[in-house]
Amino acid sequence: MGREVLGQKSVILKVTISGIRQRHEFFIEHGETAFGRIPFLACRRALPVGEMMRIANENDLPVRCPGQQVFPNGKGPKDFLGL
Fold first, then answer.
1. Got the DSSP string for the chain?
2. Which of 23, 36, 42, 64 could, after both became Cys, cross-link 29 (CB 3.0–4.6 A)?
């Protein structure tokens, strides 16, 4: 996929939780950081950090779930300004 999901309101992605393959809906949300507003793939349910990292790396976007957020490997909030 990649950054083309930014034009949509939501996207359904497959995640593996405790060995079970599931489909979860992720919404495109813009959140405030110390550097400005950046887009997040946001999920309403808590996910394991490993799955969040996999989704962030595959889509090249940060992922936010209740209580935590992750960025793709080697990237931080500054890399997503202006999207």
1. --GGGGGSSEEEEEEEETTEEEEEEEEEEEEEETTEEEEEEEESS---HHHHHHHHHHHTS-EEETTEEE--TT--GGGGTT-
2. 42
Residue 37 neighbours by CB under 8 Å, 6+ apart: 30, 31, 81
Q: What is the separation, in whole angstroms, between the first and last Cα of the chain? A: 16
Block means of pLDDT (10 residues each) for the chain, length 83 residues? 73 90 91 87 91 91 91 88 77
Check: CB of residue 61 under 8 Å from CB of residue 41.
yes
